[in-house]
Fold:
Amino acid sequence: MSKSNATACRRPDIGGQAVMEGVMMKAPDAIAISVRRANGDIVTKRKAYVAPSQKHKWMSWPIVRGVVNFVTMLSMGMSTLQDSTDMLGIMDEEPTKFEKWLSKKLGKGIDKIVMGTAIVLAVVLSLGLFFVIPELAARGLKVLMPDPSQNWLINLLSGLVRIGILIAYILFCATVPDVRRTFAYHGAEHKTVYCNEHNLPLTPENAQQFTTLHPRCGTSFLLIVFVISIVLFTLVGYQGTNYFLRLGSRLLLLPLVAGISYEVLKGLAHADGKLARILRWPGMQMQRLTTKQPTSEMLEVAIVSMNVALYGLPKGCPVTSEGYTIIRDYRVTDPGYVPETAREEAAENE
Structure:
């Protein structure tokens, strides 16, 4: 098959996200979220998705599409976490008096208040860990190495500080049992995506044979962002001693860093040459921190999300009071699945 034909026949990229006790899958035109409840049932929901580039052509331009995707994924990630929490039903307990008072004063539901607070804290934490602290380190290095010719070394060292903080943060999160389970669902997401990309029937047995490391993973993207930032901060960032100007210039360059990093990630993910494999190797190894081997039950949840995102919700399944579809056998989400009883009846009629 020629390269052009191979490109034309390549299956569309399916992305995903691990959540507590579940997986989200994003197909080109739909998003599906599935979680396993404490009683063993899988509950799933599907909603239509329209890519920003379909609404505005300029959002598909190189570099720009990376910035748009970065913002979209942040927003989608937070809403997915909220949806998955609702689907698990772990926030159904009666709000405290303080929560009721706060909800009444602000005129919003307590779930929106909690999510809004979480978003603000996440942004503050990210800025503090990956910008404020590294730039403080760079400021100290600037005093020790005032020679402008050493700016590249200062930016390199501050970039290494960012990467070190990222690794330490992931390792710290991995000490929490619920996070470790989420990392296993992350592995289930990757294995299921691989299974779909290889055009194999989506079963836990088929998916389990694949690695948990995938070239399009967000963990690889973060590492690429940090590497690209070292280069851009050295070439066009403010190099003076004013701490706030240094910090501000880095924040202003972040959209450009995200846009370039997206193009690099996509390019490396779809290339198969020796150089591409070497360049994406560090990011793949980073995923060993954020993915774990999933169980067959976790793979079933990921498969449900994949099938529902691609083919829609199966008919004839019960529905919860909240409107979520209940899946008691992951195979019913496969449009080609024929129940055992139906196969037996067909065989008897032949």
